[in-house]
């Protein structure tokens, strides 16, 4: 500070203060560059003639600083280096112990926790329990699709408002309130379990056997449980509203408060947490589905029964409570972290250069704070071809991610003859290392190789090409578990069609001793109820349709499907792993390229527009498109009292073929979009004065806020490029 006078060291520690010199010397000095101590204090220097070098703390030292500000270039403006209210706390309550978290790493910790909870809830639990919700509340597939899409609808409605006004507001407060709303959505989503009453299965041990009464009385739809879909849609809508600030304001807040070279690593860590969330959701949700929905009740059903409903609601209660706890510290962070203003002048401008793009309006410090600037902001983004192409490429990748995350467990369940909980757990094991590792490595490579602009897009291009080639693994598939020739149980119903429909409550798959899977004990010719075996499984004896290999008597059948003996399982899993890891490997480089190809003042708004495009063209139609394609491979539909229910048996060869065609189509589109974006990207012709020279490594800048000058009046120049 100016009052600190300790001989020559004081002049060295005050780079903004210089000796009286001609105006031309002040103007030609590079903005943001510290004055050289040797040249400023040398007795022979031209600027030292006015004052004695033996009196470095004399009063005239402070006057030339104001003169230097007055002589600044007209196309530059100044911002304060030390923003007011930079302490971490809640209004007047800001204890000193909390200031240890008032750093980029501290904020990243809580932001990662919020992203982890969001991913676990929306992309993990929802996809895992959606079939259980259908069964429990008598929902059709299109109704569950509406529930899943309510999240993206809410996000699309809120993105423009949140990214435009939140980008110029107090970002941590927007983020904190968003996490609170997201937690409320989780609690609302679990509410039907407590208001719908106990789950009445109405099933006996003999159901599905030939000696049991197979007539099922169809209700007239008077249960009223399907009305709870509105509650689920409301919960998902709140999830979408609350998560909107995370991937727009959260990313830009990190990018604004760290060095440009560190930004990809911070963002990659944030997105890695968002990827690990769904993986944890699949693992925890799959484990919870092994627990009966009415916890503490004894039930004769097994997890393989089509009537089984697991404890789908427990996870939402946990994530709702955790979201409330996470929002509290986020709300306490300041508008800008201490020391963040130094990175304004250190950040390299890699904005895509537009022809005849007048920076007059954008250079105004008040641009973007009113609704009147919204049309111009949108127009500037639409004129940026690199930004548009990156948005379209992101939409193609989002389509694959949304489709695979929703139907990936179902694909594994059909190919490898697994139960729903086993398939969800196995898919989680793939997503944890592939999705999380790919996301983190993407940011690491950008930082390691110091990639800029076109180099980042080329990395995205390479990742897309690799995952495109790995998609050809869907040429192979696991054969269906052997089943007897399609025929109905004894009765006057006539021959079975290829795409047959059976009552849902009559589908009780059993594995015969001959290695074939039968639709029910009656299809296997089992006359009586099952008896428990020493291993805990239910075994049906004297099944007339199951041949006995070692005697003339009848065979037996075990409850559940036969296990798959597919020899191609390891190869399929390895290449699916490759597809996932390279798909996520390009996510952080693509996001970094988006941040670098738009103007600094439009970053939050650009991310909001990009998320709208990604969700509208990818997130919303992706599950619908993949669901329609997979349904084309169905062989056996469940009959819900005369109406077609969900699919019970898929044809594995057709499912793999349809997945191959869909995946290749979207991967080729993404490859083309990245290629054109790389060709059209135009890097800036030249850097601002002296700015580029200080930035390739930026190793001289410390992350410690104490390195900043202490003078409250110290100002730094800021370029609007």
UniProtKB/TrEMBL annotation:
Domain (Kazal-like): residue spans on this chain: 505-547
**UniProt keywords, alphabetically:** Cell membrane, Disulfide bond, Ion transport, Membrane, Transmembrane, Transmembrane helix, Transport
Q: Which SUPFAM superfamilies does this UniProt record tie to the protein?
A: Kazal-type serine protease inhibitors, MFS general substrate transporter
GO molecular function, a single term? transmembrane transporter activity
- What are the subcellular locations of this protein? Cell membrane
Low complexity bias locations: 35-51
GO cellular component term, pick one? plasma membrane
Ranges that cross the membrane: 107-126, 146-167, 174-194, 230-254, 266-292, 312-333, 387-407, 427-447, 459-477, 571-593, 658-681
Keyword Disulfide bond assigned to the entry: answer is yes
Matching Gene3D superfamilies, A to Z?
3.30.60.30, MFS general substrate transporter like domains (1.20.1250.20)
Q: Which residues form the Major facilitator superfamily (MFS) profile domain?
A: 107-680
The protein's topology relative to the membrane is: Multi-pass membrane protein
* Pfam families assigned: Kazal_2, OATP
User: Which terms under GO biological process does the entry name?
Assistant: monoatomic ion transport
**Disordered as annotated region, ranges:** 14-51, 687-721
Q: Which domain of life is it from?
A: Eukaryota
Q: Which family does it belong to?
A: Belongs to the organo anion transporter (TC 2.A.60) family.
Name of this protein: Solute carrier organic anion transporter family member
According to its UniProt entry, this protein's organism is Canis lupus familiaris
């Amino acid at each position: 500070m100016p009052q600190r006078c300790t001989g020559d060291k004081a002049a060295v520690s005050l780079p903004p203060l210089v000796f009286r010199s001609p105006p031309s010397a002040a103007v030609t000095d590079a903005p943001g560059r510290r004055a050289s101590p040797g040249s400023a204090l040398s007795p022979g220097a031209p600027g030292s003639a006015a004052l004695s070098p033996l009196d470095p703390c004399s009063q005239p030292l402070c006057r030339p600083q104001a003169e230097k500000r007055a002589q600044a270039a007209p196309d530059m403006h100044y911002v304060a280096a030390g923003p007011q209210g930079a302490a971490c706390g809640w209004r007047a309550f800001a204890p000193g112990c909390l200031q240890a978290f008032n750093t980029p790493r501290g904020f990243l910790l809580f932001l990662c926790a919020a992203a982890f909870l969001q991913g676990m809830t929306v992309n993990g639990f929802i996809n895992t329990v959606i079939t259980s919700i259908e069964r429990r509340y008598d929902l059709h597939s299109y109704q569950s699709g509406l529930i899943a899409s309510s999240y993206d609808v809410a996000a699309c409605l809120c993105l423009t408002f949140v990214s435009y006004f939140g980008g110029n507001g107090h970002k941590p407060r927007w983020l904190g309130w968003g996490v609170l709303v997201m937690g409320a959505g989780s609690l609302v989503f679990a509410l039907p379990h407590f208001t719908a009453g106990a789950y009445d299965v109405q099933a006996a041990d003999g159901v599905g056997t030939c000696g049991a009464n197979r007539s099922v009385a169809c209700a007239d739809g008077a249960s009223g449980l399907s009305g709870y879909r509105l509650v689920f849609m409301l919960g998902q809508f709140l999830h979408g509203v609350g998560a909107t600030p995370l991937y727009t304001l959260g990313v830009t807040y990190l990018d604004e408060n760290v060095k440009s070279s560190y930004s990809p690593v911070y963002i990659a860590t944030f997105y890695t947490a968002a990827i690990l969330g769904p993986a944890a959701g699949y693992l925890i949700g799959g484990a919870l589905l092994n627990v009966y929905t009415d916890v503490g009740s004894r039930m004769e059903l097994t997890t393989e029964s089509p009537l089984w409903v697991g404890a789908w609601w427990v996870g939402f209660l946990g994530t709702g409570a955790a979201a409330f706890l996470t929002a509290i510290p986020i709300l306490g962070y300041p508008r800008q972290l201490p020391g963040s203003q130094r990175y304004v002048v250190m950040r390299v401008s890699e904005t895509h250069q537009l022809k005849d793009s007048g920076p007059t309006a954008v250079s105004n410090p008040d641009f973007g704070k009113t609704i009147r600037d919204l049309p111009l902001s949108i127009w500037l983004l639409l004129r940026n071809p690199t930004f548009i192409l990156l948005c379209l490429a992101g939409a193609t990748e989002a389509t694959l991610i949304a489709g695979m995350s929703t139907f990936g467990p179902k694909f594994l369940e059909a190919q490898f003859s697994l139960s729903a909980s086993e398939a969800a757990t196995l898919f989680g094991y793939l997503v944890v290392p592939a999705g999380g590792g790919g996301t983190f490595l993407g940011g690491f490579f950008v930082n390691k190789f110091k990639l800029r602009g076109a180099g980042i897009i080329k990395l995205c291009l390479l990742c897309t090409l690799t995952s495109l080639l790995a998609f050809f693994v869907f040429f192979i598939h696991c054969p269906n578990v052997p089943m007897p020739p399609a025929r109905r149980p004894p009765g006057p119903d006539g021959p079975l069609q290829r795409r047959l429909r059976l009552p849902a409550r009559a589908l009780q798959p059993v594995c015969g001793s001959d290695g074939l899977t039968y639709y029910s004990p009656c299809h296997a010719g089992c006359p009586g109820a099952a008896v428990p075996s020493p291993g805990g499984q239910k075994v049906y004896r004297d099944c007339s349709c199951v041949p006995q290999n070692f005697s003339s008597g009848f065979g037996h059948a075990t409850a559940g499907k036969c296990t798959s003996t597919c020899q191609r399982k390891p190869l399929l899993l390895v290449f699916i792993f490759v597809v996932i890891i390279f798909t996520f490997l390009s996510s952080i480089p693509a996001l970094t390229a988006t941040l670098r190809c738009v103007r600094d003042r439009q970053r939050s708004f650009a991310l909001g527009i990009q998320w709208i495009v990604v969700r509208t063209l990818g997130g919303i139609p992706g599950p619908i498109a993949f669901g329609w394609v997979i349904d084309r491979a169905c062989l056996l539909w469940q009959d819900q009292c005369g109406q077609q229910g969900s699919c019970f048996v898929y044809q594995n060869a057709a499912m793999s073929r349809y997945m191959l065609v869909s995946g290749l189509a979207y991967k080729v589109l993404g490859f083309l979009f990245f290629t054109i974006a790389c060709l059209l990207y135009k890097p800036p012709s030249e850097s601002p004065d002296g700015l580029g020279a200080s930035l390739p490594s930026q190793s001289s800048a410390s992350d410690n806020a104490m390195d900043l000058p202490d003078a409250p009046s110290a100002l730094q120049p800021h370029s609007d490029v």
